[in-house]
Design a protein that fits this description.
The complex is a heterodimer of chains A (about 375) and B (about 450).
Chain A lengths: L3 E4 H12 L3 E4 L6 H10 L6 E4 L3 H13 L4 E5 L1 H16 L4 E7 L16 H5 L9 E3 L4 H18 L2 E7 H4 L2 E4 L45 E3 L13 H16 L8 E4 L6 E6 L2 H14 L5 E5 L1 E3 L3 H8 L4 E6 L6 H7 L5 E6 L8 H7 L4
Parallel strand pairs in A: 2-3, 2-4, 4-5, 5-7, 6-7, 11-12, 11-14, 14-15
Antiparallel strand pairs in A: 1-8, 6-13, 10-12
Chain B lengths: L23 H16 L6 E5 L14 E4 L5 H11 L4 E7 H6 L1 H10 L4 E6 L2 E2 L5 E2 L23 H7 L4 E6 L5 H10 L4 E6 L6 H4 L4 H11 L4 E5 L5 H11 L21 E8 L4 H14 L3 E7 L8 E9 L13 E4 L2 H12 L6 E5 L10 E5 L1 H8 L4 H13 L4 H11 L2 H16 L7
Parallel strand pairs in B: 1-2, 1-3, 3-4, 4-8, 7-8, 10-13, 13-14, 14-15
Antiparallel strand pairs in B: 5-6, 7-9, 10-12, 11-12
Helix pairs in contact in B: 1-6, 10-13, 10-14, 12-15, 13-15, 14-15
Chain lengths: ~375, ~450
């Protein structure tokens, strides 16, 4: 075992380097500040640029510019910073910009408990910008998973030309834990598909709606254009309703088309179990303890831990719900992902939330007691 | 001189420019085109970043790269583009509106000195949204949102960015014939360059203020703002300086690899709370202790709680050690609880009152504790730290606890100290270990 003792924030920074990140901009905010710190330390030696911006809006602006100029870019913040990222996230969506956005969640709303944990930005991640386009959000449960999912987040961003959320929390970001990084199997790095130098280039060219357009970086072989306004495939302003709808359908289709392919989860199903616990993030670790305790008591229970939160991995959730009478959804918020489960569960299935936002972790005992499994 | 390769950077494929008759933007864009022709930069290496506003309609009339982003944020995209690809010529077109909503980016672009050229098409109001007042609207002027005359002071963009450290600043009227040359100078300047170009908004500002070309010239005098080349100095360009610094910073801290060299006898997850004061190196001691556990084949977690200030208030670390992977890292029922300062006690007071009987509570003998069910052991941690070193109190307490608990070998803690701490610190902490161990007297020693 080659163990190291690191926190989730450092795991993300090291994962970003593995993924080939070439640009980072961020603004200090607890509990995400150390990602900025680590990137300032790690990126220069890896040929990249890391800098502190004047605010969160500038952080996102720098990253979008750098991403469109060909760098793999990442930024990191916490809830209040995501509020300020919101408009630029919309820009990244319509500009089809590959980008990784880390949200080390903390207790909110507003300034909240700045140094304390929560996972309250779940639906905020899904509906983060005006216009309501789909987002991809991955949620690790540990430093080791944060390392791996960082690489996966970069891969998805580059593959699909989209901003991708990596949702951790104070509990993952700032808790040091023993982990063997070398034992984690990382996926191969994905590079964006660039348009051939000789061909004519349109920045948003596709035939089928789900197709990801080839990209040509600013400063690359083609003269290119990028715009925040409704645009056609050439990247020019348009007011043609047909073209506008076609682009909207495209933003949605390219994510919907990969929903099953990018569904990451861990399943621990027990034959004949009528109770299923669906969880994600740091809470899933309490679920693991609760599940083994329940089984020791002879209670049958299954567990589905989601690492891909959005797009909602509906196929696997529906399959896990088969034959289940009761679903527990423990969350460090007041029941955000439960909305997704409620909409997917058949009417005879009882969906029960175990929720709190008091800054403390949900314990295995709370899951068992509040879930009515005691 | 050979004939220019690029005769124009504009295209007429879309027809004439889309501005209102007499609008200053048309002349400005043509002057920018003239400047680009003088520069003869490969259009694929030129990026025109446009802000929101009428001037933002410009991008598609150029054959160079165009980047049209959010209102007020154009300087941020320009900064990202330029830092990612230093070979690009990055020109930002922004209205006076952008100088307001993007004010902080304007100040910080000037301070940062990334090699970007910003041209402000300054016509004293928001044309695109119906002629509302902007940060540059002159005092007394009538706009859609100042029906009785503007009460706010007009911002002197040039003086503002100059005060923020801009290295090249120019102000002129859009009718001046030397504007293309000025733009060329600005683009060639190796750093942030700003051109504040005053123009007419024929749609809104002119009719509301009985304004014309002559009045535009008069405004210069009335405003008292200076015109011409106002700043021209050199300061290292951010990107170049960053790359220079980076070559010096190239070494990256390697992670400490913790290979198991000791054995442990721990059968279940064990929670340890260490409560002291900020400035007592509690986090560091807890980390070294956790790593010693890892050297003994244990899994570990550590979280720290401390105020946002430094060297004042509490510092409490929570460590879990376990023979198996640690899932739930909160310590609801601590097995070991160490307290050695008033700050630490204050922070954990309630917690101490609820400790289970199974918990070994080791505290400094000077502290007055609340009632507790824990197994209480009072030891002279503070006195020992006075002898060995104030910053070693955490190691003293942890060494005492480790000797008492036998969670893993004491030798593992010594190895962790000597291997992972700087030698000067390690030397003191080895003494601290000895001192902590000596606090626990046992017959089999």
């Amino acid at each position: 075992m080659a163990q190291v003792f690191i926190d989730g924030n450092e795991a993300i920074a090291r994962g970003a380097i593995k993924a080939g990140c070439g640009f980072f901009a961020g603004y200090p905010i607890t509990p995400a500040s150390t990602i900025l710190q680590y990137m300032l330390e790690l990126l220069p030696a890896n040929g990249g640029v890391a800098l502190q911006a004047e605010d969160e809006i500038a952080s996102m602006g720098f990253c979008i510019g750098a991403a469109m100029a060909g760098r793999k870019a990442m930024t990191a913040t916490s809830g209040p910073g995501i509020s300020l990222y919101s408009e630029n996230i919309g820009l990244a969506i319509v500009g089809e910009t590959p980008l990784v956005i880390v949200n080390v969640q903390r207790q909110g709303p507003a300034t909240g408990s700045a140094t304390k944990g929560a996972e309250g930005d779940i639906q905020f991640s899904r509906w983060v910008t005006s216009g309501g386009m789909p987002m991809i959000a991955l949620s690790p449960a540990s430093a080791g998973e944060a390392y791996e999912l960082t690489v996966r987040a970069f891969n998805l961003a580059e593959q699909l030309r989209v901003p991708v959320f990596l949702l951790t929390s104070k509990e993952i970001g700032l808790t040091r834990e023993s982990v063997d990084l070398d034992a984690i199997e990382l996926p191969a790095n994905v590079e964006r598909c660039r348009a051939p130098e000789t061909a004519d280039y349109q920045p948003h060219d596709f035939e089928l709606p789900a197709q990801v357009p080839l990209i040509s970086d600013f400063g690359g072989p083609h003269v290119t254009q990028y715009t925040t306004s409704t645009h056609n495939k050439e990247g020019y302003l348009t007011s043609d309703p047909e073209v506008i709808q076609e682009m909207i359908d495209h933003y949605i289709a390219k994510i919907e088309a990969v929903t099953d392919a990018i569904a990451l989860y861990r399943q621990d199903m027990e034959q004949g179990a009528k109770v299923l616990i669906i969880s994600y993030g740091v809470v899933s670790r309490s679920v693991n303890v609760a599940v083994s305790e329940l089984r020791q008591r002879g209670i049958k229970v299954s567990s589905l831990v989601l690492q891909t939160l959005f797009p909602v991995p509906e196929t696997i959730i529906k399959s896990a719900l088969t034959g289940v009478r009761k679903v527990l959804v423990p969350e460090m918020n007041m029941g955000q992902y439960r909305l997704e489960i409620e909409r997917l569960a058949a009417s005879e299935i009882e969906v029960v939330g175990v929720n709190k936002m008091d800054t403390t972790l949900i314990s295995p005992a709370e899951i068992i007691a509040k879930g009515g499994l005691a | 001189m050979s004939a220019p390769i690029y005769k124009s950077y504009m295209t007429d494929a879309l027809g004439p420019l889309p501005f209102c008759p007499g609008c200053g933007h048309e002349r400005l864009l043509k002057d920018l085109d003239r400047a680009l022709v003088k520069l003869q930069t490969d259009p694929a290496k030129v990026v025109i970043v446009t802000d929101i506003g009428c001037i933002g309609l410009a991008d598609r009339y150029f054959v160079a790269n165009a980047f049209h982003g959010l209102h007020g944020r154009s300087l941020t995209y320009a900064t990202g583009l330029k830092l990612a690809r230093p070979e690009l010529t990055v020109i930002v077109l922004m209205g006076d509106g952008g100088c307001g909503i993007g004010g902080t980016h304007l100040l910080n672009a000037a301070r940062r000195n990334v090699d970007i050229t910003l041209i402000v098409a300054n016509n004293f109001n928001y044309g695109m949204t119906g002629g509302q007042h902007s940060v540059t609207t002159p005092g007394g002027a009538f706009t859609a949102t100042t029906p009785a005359g503007n009460i706010e002071a007009a911002m002197d963009i040039c003086a503002t960015v100059a005060g923020a450290g801009a290295t090249w600043v120019y102000r002129g009227i859009g009718y001046e014939n030397d504007l293309p040359d000025r733009i060329v100078e600005g683009v060639r300047h190796p750093g942030f360059a700003l051109l504040d170009v005053w123009e007419l908004c024929t749609a809104y500002y002119m009719p509301r203020n009985q304004y014309n070309k002559k009045e535009l010239y008069n405004l210069v005098e009335k405003s008292g703002f200076e015109t011409g080349l106002l700043v021209n100095k050199t300061r290292p360009e951010f990107g170049a300086e960053y790359r220079k610094q980076s070559s010096h910073l190239a070494a990256v801290r390697q992670l400490d690899i913790l290979e198991q060299g000791f054995d442990h006898a721990l059968e279940r997850q064990t929670g340890i709370v260490i409560a002291g004061s900020a400035g007592q190196k509690i986090r560091s001691a807890a980390g070294i202790f956790s790593m010693a556990g890892m050297l003994s084949g244990l899994h570990a977690t550590q979280k720290d709680d401390y105020p946002i200030t430094v060297m004042t208030g509490h510092s409490v670390s929570e460590v879990n050690l376990s023979p198996t992977r640690i899932e739930y890292s909160a310590i609801d029922s601590p097995d070991y609880f160490l307290v050695f300062s008033e700050d630490g006690l204050k922070k954990t007071h309630t917690w101490i009152g609820k400790l289970p009987t199974t918990c070994l509570l080791m505290v400094d003998e000077e502290l007055a504790l609340p009632d507790t069910n824990a197994h209480l052991v009072k030891l002279p941690f503070g006195q020992a730290a006075k002898d060995v070193g104030r910053l070693s109190i955490g190691i003293i307490a942890l060494a005492a606890m480790l000797k008492q608990s036998e969670l893993f070998p004491l030798a593992a803690l010594r190895t962790s100290i000597t291997r992972y701490q700087p030698s000067a610190v390690a030397e003191i902490n080895c003494k601290a270990m000895d001192r902590g161990m000596a606090l626990i007297s046992r017959t089999d020693d």
